[in-house]
Design a protein that fits this description.
Blueprint: E1 2-7, H1 11-14, E2 20-22, H2 29-40, E3 51-54, E4 57-59, E5 70-74, E6 83-87, H3 93-100, E7 107-114, E8 118-119, E9 122-131, H4 133-151, E10 155-161, E11 163-166, E12 170-178, H5 181-198, E13 201-207, E14 210-213, H6 221-224
Parallel strand pairs: 1-5, 6-10
Antiparallel strand pairs: 1-2, 3-4, 3-5, 7-12, 8-9, 9-11, 9-13, 10-12, 13-14
Helix pairs in contact: 4-5
EC number: 2.8.1.12
Catalytic activity: 2 [molybdopterin-synthase sulfur-carrier protein]-C-terminal-Gly-aminoethanethioate + cyclic pyranopterin phosphate + H2O = molybdopterin + 2 [molybdopterin-synthase sulfur-carrier protein]-C-terminal Gly-Gly + 2 H(+)
Protein name: Molybdopterin synthase catalytic subunit
């Protein structure tokens, strides 16, 4: 099968110009990264910090590829636009956190929201998240930019999972990189609290004895009243 390959930043100088790759059946996202690591014969700590996106969604290296997929190799970002995404694959927490870290950072704070196995004494089997996706992405982007301005942090990643999630999987990931720990902690707490109140994402909890939509936090008054 043939996939389209995109590279950015410093990878454009490190890797040969190949806008597509012919891969064997059963190839994964990690196969693409391994191809370039072997072909360049370059040992660099950068390889472990590269994030992979397939069809514009973050994926792990085990993600299976299909004919015509677009595979993007993403080096650590350099303080441009915040990383904001809705994804349906497992969120690679460590890789995303590593991709944000820069030499000028004195702290990287990570909030890794995971699916727990019970709610108020009822055993949870799995969760399903859905969103008004276009609006949710826009709102998440606004929050990420506002956090950078409000708290003076250098960079932010804000990623939420959609679809069915098993116990122990990450549902929402927030990473804040900053010169100072206090600002990073404050921004991270503000982001998760505000996301829960304003971003249109809903959770349905499936238990052994039934399923219910989770009670959400009330919208701020200015949203409900249109103020």
């Amino acid at each position: 099968m043939r996939v389209r390959v995109l590279v950015f930043g410093v990878l454009k100088e490190m890797l040969p110009e190949e806008d597509s790759l012919e891969l064997p059946e059963g190839a994964t996202a990690g196969t693409v990264l391994q191809h370039f690591e072997v072909s360049t014969q370059t040992e660099s700590p950068l390889w472990s910090a590269i994030a992979i996106a397939v069809n514009r969604e973050y994926v792990g290296p085990a993600h299976p590829l299909a004919e015509g997929d677009e595979v993007a190799l993403l080096p650590p970002v350099s303080g441009g636009s915040p990383v904001v995404a809705l994804v349906r694959e497992p969120i690679p927490t460590e890789k995303i956190a590593a991709s944000l870290r820069q030499g000028e950072d004195g702290a990287v704070v990570v909030f890794d929201g995971i699916v727990r196995n019970n709610t108020r004494g009822r055993r949870t089997l799995y969760l399903i998240y859905e969103a008004y996706e276009e609006m949710a992405l826009a709102q998440m982007g606004t929050l990420a930019h506002e956090a950078r301005t409000k708290f003076g942090v250098r960079d932010v990643a804000l990623i939420h999972r959609l679809g069915q999630l098993a116990i122990g999987e990450t549902s929402v990931l927030i990473v804040v990189a900053s010169a100072h720990r206090a600002a990073a902690f404050d921004a991270c707490r503000w982001l998760i609290d505000t996301l829960k109140k304003t971003v249109p994402i809903w959770k349905k909890e499936h238990f052994e004895d039934g399923a219910v939509w989770a009670d959400g936090e009330p919208f701020p008054a200015e949203i409900v009243k249109g103020a």
